[in-house]
Amino acid sequence: MYRNHTCGELTLADVNKEVTLAGWVQKVRKLGGGMTFVDLRDRYGITQLAFSKDVNADLYEQSNKFGREYVLQVTGTVQERSSKNMNIPTGEIEIIVNKLVILNTSEVPPFTIEDETDGGDDLRMKYRYLDLRRSPVRKNLELRHKIAFETRRFLDERQFIEVETPVLIGSTPEGARDFVVPSRMNPGEFYALPQSPQLFKQLLMVSGFDRYFQIVKCFRDEDLRADRQPEFTQIDCEMSYVNQEDVLNMFEGLTKHLFKKVKGIDIPDFPRITYAHAMKYYGSDKPDTRFGMEFVEIKDLTTGKDFIVFDSSEYVGAICAKGAASYTRKQLDALTDYVKRPQIGAKGLVYVRYEADGSLKSSVDKFYTAEDLKKWAERCQAEPGDLILIICGETEKAQKQLCELRLEVGDQLGLRDKNKFNCLWVIDFPLLEKDEELGRFFAKHHPFTSPKEEDIPLLESDPGAVRANAYDMVINGVEVGGGSVRIHNSQLQNKMFHVLGFTEEKAQAQFGFLMNAFKYGAPPHAGLAFGLDRLVSLFAGLDSIRDCIAFPKNNSGRDVMIDAPAVLEQEQLDELNLKVVIKE
What we know:
Binding site for ATP: 220-222, 229, 479, 531-534
Structural class: alpha+beta
GO molecular function: aspartate-tRNA ligase activity
Shape: globular
Keywords: Aminoacyl-tRNA synthetase, ATP-binding, Cytoplasm, Ligase, Nucleotide-binding, Protein biosynthesis
Number of helices: 17
Catalytic activity: tRNA(Asp) + L-aspartate + ATP = L-aspartyl-tRNA(Asp) + AMP + diphosphate
InterPro entries: Aa-tRNA-synt_II, aa-tRNA-synth_II, aa-tRNA-synth_II/BPL/LPL, Asp-tRNA-ligase_1, Asp-tRNA-ligase_1_N, Asp/Asn-tRNA-synth_IIb, AspRS_core, GAD-like_sf
Oligomer: single chain
Number of strands: 22
Radius of gyration: 30 Å
Largest sheet: 8 strands, mixed
């Protein structure tokens, strides 16, 4: 072994002990009077090395030539420091070095390997192997390990078995584009990388495995954002002989376990709200409930006053920002510009200030009396000092715009504390959603989601009104996990395919193996999948899942470190029977 201790464990209890350490040079501090101090770093921490010209002139001279990130092995004696650093666990001791081996030298790194680095995102991603040496990045991966480990422990204790499912599968429609892989042995044919192990975990239930889980890579070729990567990791789970309540209780238990074991936090029971409630009061199926500011509909209070904008709108909704009446005109204009951005698409924003003296001032004063505005304020439960913000338009669009405004104001008022966690279940999703352009229905989750039993008759007469036995776990406005009770009999599954516009031949071609399996006694089953990356990023307080993945892609789906994806050599294309034609 190159070391008998790590750089993060020595304390005053080890004084006078001879130790051997190995690690990277974090910093060299040359003092007057023939003293040089070197911070030696490894995964576990930092230990100060002391080199004195009076004690060992040769080692002292060598220490003055160390560069950042040199790899050293040192042997020496633990000594109490005269100038202690109580910010680190080893800050009360140092090593008086008596033997030194330079295991490797290093070029000057392209950015500082410090908690607060001078490297931008692109540079850090290009040299990700150096970025991973930084303590905050390393801690994110240690947190990820801990969450995965505790997940396995919890599920193993409850009779779940981890089963690996294939990575090379057939292409199936699951809501996003597939990544495809050409088959050399089967010219002109392609595998797809799985968007999820959905079909296989259902087959495992048919196989009698009863309780399955897998911490598994999934792949989706979709536009990227902060909480998306082309390859991501799910905690994928399925159970037999259970109903929706069983699944919610099991995985609420897992989430509480992770919060307790990993963060030392006791989480209360999760509220359950319907999809309809979430949309009505938050404009989102993943509401952030760390703060109030729920939507209030005031359409009935605004009509008949000759304000054509409200009169012609299907929906008029308000939020009440507590204590925000002090917002300046400049701040209100900035909020108006925010909601008018193309990504949000509102046409404007109406405000009502409830002043401390009880008066009400609005951007629509010339249409509405003080008495009118007072009724709005009462409906919104506003008090002096509060600010009411109003958006109108088509119901669904206006609610989504009001949702974005609510989150922005919540941020501005400091209401979205990353150290506070609000967990909930959203249930009773619509089973289907209609594409108006194509004039047909698509599964909101996937084609195997079971409708509510009482809604099955509506599949033929009113498909859009059918509710699903589907559920999402939401934490702080992030959809962390989701799943459903599955269809487990062939007749209902065939009816679902029919509603979705599948011909019998197409359904058989894409899902024949599952439908055939259902003929042999499929048990009732249900499951869900957690996004491990999202869960870790929430626990770590990160803004992007990229920071808790060892080797992530950038926003263009590129790995800039290894420069992938890349062009293939013609010889390789020929072997795969492929010809590349890039459309103009």
